Amino acid sequence: MKQDMSNHVLLELENLSKSFDLDHGFLDTLKFKKGRIVSEKRSVHAVNNVSLKIHKGEALCVVGESGCGKSTVARLVAGLISPTKGAIHYDGQRIDALKGKDLLPLRKRMQMIFQNPYASLNPRMTIQQALEEPVRHHNPSFSRDDVQDKVANVMRSVGVDPSWAARYPHEFSGGQRQRIAIARALTVDPEFVIADEPISALDVSIQAQVLNLMLEAKEERGLTYLFITHDLSVVQHFGTRVAVLYLGSVCEYADTATLFSNPKHPYTRALLSAVPQLSDDKPNHIRLKGEIPTPINLPKGCPFQSRCSYSNPRCSAELPVAIEQADGSVVACHAVEEGRID
Amino acid sequence: MSMMSDHQSNSLFSRIMDSNITYSFKRNPVAIISMVIFLLIAFAAAFAPLIAPTDPYDPSLYDILDSELPPAWTGQGDEKFLFGTDDQGRDLWSAILYGTRTSLIIGICAVLVQAFLGISIGLISGYLGGRIDNILMRFADIQLSFSTLMVAIIFLAVSQALFGSDTFNKYALFMLVGVIGIAEWPQYARTVRATVLAEKKKEYVDSARVLGFSPVRIMIRHILPNSLSPIFVISTVQVANAIVSEASLSFLGLGMPVSQPSLGSLISSGFDYIFSGSWWITTIPGIVLVVLVLVINLLGDWMRDVLNPKLYKG
Amino acid sequence: MPLLSVRDLVVKFAMRDNTVTALNSISFDVARGDRLGIVGESGAGKSVTGFALLNLISRPGFIDSGEILFDGMNMADMSDAELREVRGNKMAMIFQDPMVTLNPVLTIGQQMVETLQAHRTLSRKEAEQIAIVKLREVYIPAPEERLAQYPHELSGGMRQRIIIAIALLLDPQLIIADEPTTALDVTIQADIMELLLELCTTKKVSLILITHDLGVVSQMTENTLVMYAGRIIEAGRTREIINDPQHPYTQGLINALPQQTLPGARLKQIPGNMPSLSAVPKGCAFNARCEYAQDRCRAEIPVFEQIGPVKVACHEVKRLHHAPQKQEDLA
To answer: I want to staple A96 with a disulfide (CB 3.0 to 4.6 A). Which of A88, A189, A324, B56 is the partner?
Structure first.
């Protein structure tokens, strides 16, 4: 399933972790416990030890339920927040510690599309202003006409009539706004695009339009995507590789076709079975016990143990490591490792 | 692709006339009346030198024999002096016109100072957060714990004693603008900071960061234009407050000198004569002051109702 | 006689300068024990339909004309007191967001007891007993302890179960669920749907499920309405509609789903956007986006009529019906 893409690794996440402190300042950390005041720092472990590679030309989908840390991964890669531990390499260069001016060349190569097209465009800027701004910023040598041409070209390429450039975002529908947001990311001609749930706020018929637009951009510009989503049918359609995230950890990482035809991790299986299908009449999904625990105090051992029907004492004691399987997929599960699941 | 056809022209004027603000204004009689009165007062103040029959700043123009003439409509007054005269024979109508002008200038300039300080500090504090935010906001808290008037009185009294009355009177206007401006910036800073904190979470700010724009650019070009609504609301109320502060300080003799009266110093100068029957010297400027502050506050109320996103979207 | 019969319902909204029609002559029936899905995109009028059925449309919206016959009574011209008697008691509604539907300052028990006592003369003890039974029916573990808890102490899925339990408190004959699982995760959504399906079948409660998700409709309902720009454009048995959609919009909606296309290939998209209610085009509202549109579609509003097993509002459907599969569809 390597197809014709070159084996050039564009982005590499290495043991990436991010936790957010819940208590700010010393006074917040003081707790009253068993008749004594103790200082205790709580933090949300949003992403834990995530290692992923994205090859040039791939579309890596990160999928999971709310609170699994998938958006945090996107924001870490985009440099909007910095990791607590681990490293991010882009095209061989370590980028997680870059600041200010050093980041600028990277910004031209890597762009991001956001979930909510109603919030990702500045409501006080016309479309023209919003699209011109990045062009000017990254190409100070451009003449007025060059900028105009660039903006008009990008607008045409996303299917928005350039004659509407003088309008404000609120005059457009959600789908058109998302096209404009994509256009804005494309104005700097990036090679890598992070898309954080880019279609989940849109209507079904509009989702198809935007997804097609992103596929077109991928083919025409040779884009590489990091695509964050909760929608498995989109993953199957759009992704070349998939990483399934649960409570901030990768539980399964595989080629899309492999993952959908032969899911191995118990969570992946449950997730796949829960998608409502058009065809069958009776829902027949794998029920999970309970609900996702909070990422504040992570359980020892496997993060999925509390809901897993295969869990045993080892799962609650020892954190499973990611092991590559015969078909190339990488699974972090004791039960799979021990062959307890068929 | 037909959604655009119902928008005809897109000029700035038609956008303003179409906006919700204009719509709500047209349907709110209180706002309309307040706006009319405010514009009348502002117009009269702005063109005071053209409207006023005499120049109240020129002592050679008044005659002590005309002193304490009651307003013209009482029958005992003089046709020449519509609102009567003060203790020095100065035409009260002219003095009020000039005084309103002074009061408005001080009010607006003081608010500009407040806004400049408050918006800059609020933006920096809200956008950068962390330690800088903590330091700036504690500083604002400390300043807020002193009342504006107390700070102003101490500062003005000390500088009056230091520089002597004459120098002080010469620069009174700037002193007042400075003192009222500096004393009230925390109001702005807090409001702006709160708005910035809310705006900062929105995706368009992330989007600007990913595009590599500098923090200064993001603050001024992206966050500030989206934080204007609360700034407008607070500005109207602050103008009214600044006018009242100025009037109080002038009334206490720490503001504008009687030779260049503001509404406050007019009220103060007439106060000594109120028990000898010359009520008009204090009362008429007082009414003007109350009406001016009232209409500004009413406009501020209306603006808050329109611009408050919670009320507005519901 | 059907449990619910909606006849020519028109709902309008008074805007600043004009009045827009949010529901345009909607008619449908729900039989006892039936499960009906209402499908559409945002702006189609599906949520307005849900609110209109309970006569919950509030200013600036209003029911302009039409009848909502529930159990023979017309909801559209009932007094507030009569409406309160029906709402919650015979007809219950489940909303989209479980985070905001429950009152955060009242315990689960207080909210359930309050609902019960508003409609029945019961002591606190009796009401709590009923509440516990209902919580058990929605598989909430340790229901006695939940009564004392506040909504924020519970997870999203648990809250939606409690909302369902509250909806079932007074044994309603009809439940209207407006996007009940949209705010939930896939695995939780599947659990909630299964629960709702089980409760409706065992208790013979009718269900109106309002959703944008065709997969959910396919698994949950027997009949389906497809709405577009304030009108019903297709109605019939769910299986018929999913397997053999007649209206070009329904076809487009189903074909636009990623699972209908090979991975990586272009999705079959519907061009354009749903018109805003203030700018619905003349004739068929879908004409600007429809690949089959003719002059007639741009002039005349199509009649909603029975064609084959389903009812459809489309001029071209007769011509297209049973036509050989179009070549470009296969390409």
So the answer is: A88
Question: Domain count of chain B?
Answer: 1
Q: Which residue of C has its CA nearest to A283?
A: C219
Task: Please state the rounded mean pLDDT for residues B113-131.
Answer: 92
Cβ-Cβ contacts under 8 Å, A133 against chain B: 211, 213, 221
B1 within some domain? no
- CB–CB contacts below 8 A, B to C: 14
Q: Which helix (H) or strand (E) holds C155?
A: none
Task: State whether A236 and C268 contact (CB < 8 Å).
Answer: no
Question: Tell me, what's the pLDDT at B3?
Answer: 38
Whole-angstrom distance, CA of residue A203 vs CA of residue C87: 30
Complex confidence, ipTM: 0.84
Distance from CA of A95 to the nearest CA of B (A): 13
- Residue B218's CATH number: 1.10.3720.10
Residue B21 domain flag: no
Compute how many other C-beta atoms are within 10 angstroms of the C-beta atom of residue B35.
16
Rounded average pLDDT over B41-54: 87
Q: Are C139 and C174 in contact (CB under 8 A)?
A: no
DSSP state of B91: B
Q: What is the 3-state secondary structure (H, E, C) of A134-183?
A: HHHHHCCCCCHHHHHHHHHHHHHHCCCCHHHCCCCHHHCCHHHHHHHHHH
Whether C281 contacts chain B with CB within 8 A = yes
Confidence tier at B189 by pLDDT (50, 70, 90): very high
Q: What is the pTM of this model?
A: 0.83
Whether residue B34 is contained in a domain is answered as no
Give yes or no for a contact between C109 and C124, defined as CB atoms under 8 angstroms apart: no
C278 interfaces chain B, CB cutoff of 8 Å: yes
